[in-house]
Amino acid sequence: MPFIILLLSVLVIAADQVLKLLVIQYLKPDGVKTIFDGLLSFVYVENRGAAFSILQNQRWLFIGITLVICILIIYALFRYGNHEFFSYAASALIVGGGIGNLIDRVLKGYVVDYIHVSFFPAIFNFGDCCVTVGTVFLMIHVLFFADDSHGAEKVLRTK
Description:
Distance between the termini: 31 Å
Number of strands: 3
Radius of gyration: 17 Å
Strand content: 5-15%
Shape: globular
C-alpha cells in the first residue's frame, strides 16, 4: 500500500504543477480573473514566503523544512503499522502538496499562488489545499483512529 500512496502523491504533484503552468500561461498576463463576484477569484501571486506571505525570502528554510517533513512522512508510511484511510490520505496529500510547492521554490525561487476566496485573507494554491486537508486528516487519525496503547500515539496522548 505505501507504494500506491506514493503514486497518489505523484498524481497530486502532477496536478499541482499542471495547474500552475495553466495559471502562468493564462492568468499571469491579466493578473486577476473573477469567477464568482465577491466570493472567488484567481489572482496571480509569486509568494516568496510561507502562509500569509510571512517570512519572505527564506527560500532555503522552507526547502529544508519541506524536505524533512516529506522524508519523515515517507518513512512513517513504510514503518508505521496502524495505517487506515485518514493516515494514508494524509500522507499522499501532505507529500504531494509539499513537493509540488517545493518544486516551485527550487526552480523559481517562489511559489505560484492563485486562489483567492473573499472570506480568507491569503492567496493560496492547490498544493496548499492538499497540505491543509492532509494535516486535518492526520489530526483526525491521531485523535480518533490511532491505537493509543503503544508507540508514538501513547507518547502523544499521555502528554
